[in-house]
Amino acid sequence: MQEAQGLTLRDILNVIYKRIFILKIVVVLLPIGVFIGCLLATPVYQVDAKIIVTAKKDESSLLQGTTQGTSRIVNLNIDEIDLNSEMEILKSPDLWSKTVEALGPNFFKSQPTGIFGKIKSAISTEITNFFQSPKEPENGESREQVKYRALASSLMSRFDVTPVPRSKILDLSFKDSDPNKVQKILSTLLTVYIPFHSQVYSIPGVQSFFAEQLAASKAKYDLLRDKMVNFKKKWELSVPERQETDLISTLKLIEDSLIDVNSGLRQYSKIVTLLNKGDFPTGQLAPGGQRGGESTLINVLAVQVVQAAQKQGQVGEIFASNSRDYRAAADQYNETLVKFKTVVASESSILEIKKASLEESRKTVLAQMKNLSEKSEKLRAIQLEVSVAREQYLQFVGKEQAARLESTEGRQKLVDVKVLGEPYPPKKPIFPKTGLYVILAFLFSFPLGIGIIFVATFLDHSFDDPSRLEAATGYRVLASFGKVKKDEPPGDSK
Questions:
Q1: What is the rounded CA–CA span in Å between residue 486 and residue 187?
Q2: d(CA 264, CA 256)
Q3: Which long-range contacts does 83-86 make (Cβ < 8 Å, 24+ apart)?
Q4: How many CB atoms are closer than 10 A to CB 42?
Q5: Is 478 in a helix, a strand, or coil?
Q6: Which of 1, 35, 118, 317 has the most CB atoms around it within 10 Å of its CB?
């Protein structure tokens, strides 16, 4: 029987050639499918803009010139809190509500085009009306204001602002499926943002803004602090380090007690073994340094057993074995021995019960230590959140106090912003990138098709090579013929 030869490059090419139609189908259908998917997908357009955050002071008389007049000092030392504040202003629902109001409700009305678009719009409207009840106005707001806030929330979900590393510049981006609206929305936002920013940072507007931020940060800090306190009360975590030390001490005491109990059980086991062999206990159960846990009753009975055995031996030397004195001595020895064995068995059972109780206590302490370790980790994570919230709260306390002092002293040191890059109408959608996706699908279709060919070959258990049939069966192939059509006799095949 010949051994099967290894797979050669010729065999691989032969496998691919026999099922080349699978590769052709995949190479054709996969790019076509991706192309159709890109045509059916809703395109997404994106516009970008940039703003720079600076600081300005009052006019300075020290920089007055003869021709240029009074100069203004511009300070670019903006900290991270100023950038975060500008990002929060850009994401403010009030700013987006003003943007929606500036655009007008008719701007967001779009009629669906085509039969499929109208059917989809009608179905979406019916589903929305069925599952969502209309919201009633709250806090004295009108229905129009509620509608503006809903539109503003929808627009905010497609808006993103990112600080540029090591700079005072913020990158703004907005995404929408309508290329005619996406640029208009972001431009209107920037138009509304400048006066809204001035209103926020104007005195006393800056103070009220930071007061709101301070209240929000304090509420977050109080919430996390209450969460930490409740967590400690729930799991009884006063001082985890001290509790862990107490549990370790308790576990050590239990381990020491188990050692004493096991030592006593071994001693009683040795006594029983000696009695079974016919030897007598000496009356001393442990070495001199370990006699603290001995049973006095067992020691006394052991001595009595030895004395009774010695007395029986002495009487046996004087009297015959059937005499009354010898029988009395033998009865006394047997009675003392039975009493000794009973006491040893009772002490052993007591130690067994104590051992089981100690082992159960050890399991309980180990479980408590494991639970304490897990809850301590969670407590440390909560404490870290509380520390971060506390730092943010203290930062806003400082900002709020500085704003109050500026409001009191009448200083005009305000944070200023400028638009560096206006948004331009998008030329191409960012999704889907049809050309790129089709090229990637075409390139991926080759390994995919070849993979399908090899899987189909692996699942095919027929033989198409005489040498492989001979290697598998051990019999020699005398003749072979190719494929035969159903209506063609075997003798007419070529």
A1: 73
A2: 13
A3: 83/53, 83/163, 83/168, 83/170, 85/209, 85/213, 85/415, 86/51, 86/53, 86/170, 86/197, 86/415, 86/417
A4: 8
A5: coil
A6: 35
Which residues are registered as beta bridge partners of 162?
A: 171
Question: How many of the other CB atoms lie within 10 Å of CB of 247?
Answer: 15
Report yes or no: 2 and 428 within 8 Å, Cβ to Cβ.
no
Q: Give SS3 for 69.
A: coil
3-state class (DSSP) for residue 287: coil
Residue 433 phi, psi dihedral angles, 5° rounding = -90, 90
**Two structure tokens written together for 273:** 């073994």
For residue range 250-274, what is the model confidence (pLDDT) as tens digits? 989 998 888 888 888 888 888 778 7
Helices H, strands E: what count in the chain? Answer: 13, 5
Within 13 Å, how many C-alpha atoms sit on residue 393's CB side? 17
Q: Name the amino acid, one letter, at 475.
A: Y
Could you give the CA distance from residue 262 to residue 352 in angstroms, rounded to a whole number?
9
The token duo for 186 is 């972001």
- pTM value is 0.44
Q: How many CB atoms within 10 Å of residue 70? A: 12
Instruction: Report the DSSP beta bridge partners of residue 184.
Output: none
pLDDT one-digit tens code per residue, 210-244: 788 888 888 999 999 998 889 888 888 878 888 88
* Bridge-based pairing state of the strands 159-163 and 169-176: antiparallel
- Three-state secondary structure of 155-200: HHCCEEEEECCCCCEEEEEEEECCHHHHHHHHHHHHHHHHHHHHHH
**Per-residue pLDDT of the chain in tens (494 residues, 90 and over written 9):** 344 455 678 778 887 888 889 989 999 999 999 999 888 888 888 999 998 887 654 444 333 433 444 444 445 567 777 788 888 888 888 888 889 888 887 887 765 544 444 565 566 556 655 544 445 555 556 677 777 888 888 888 889 999 888 888 889 999 988 888 888 998 999 888 888 877 776 655 666 777 888 888 889 999 999 988 898 888 888 788 888 888 899 989 998 888 888 888 888 888 778 777 766 655 444 443 344 455 677 778 778 877 887 787 888 878 877 888 888 888 888 888 888 888 888 888 888 898 899 899 989 999 988 888 888 888 889 999 999 999 988 888 888 777 777 655 544 445 677 787 778 888 888 888 888 888 999 999 999 988 998 888 788 767 666 777 777 777 787 776 665 555 655 555 44
Do you know the residue count of the chain? 494
Q: Return the domain boundaries, the chain.
A: 9-41+432-492, 45-203, 240-390
392: its two tokens: 């943010």
Pairing of strands 169-176, 45-60: antiparallel
Query: What's at 396, amino acid-wise?
Result: F
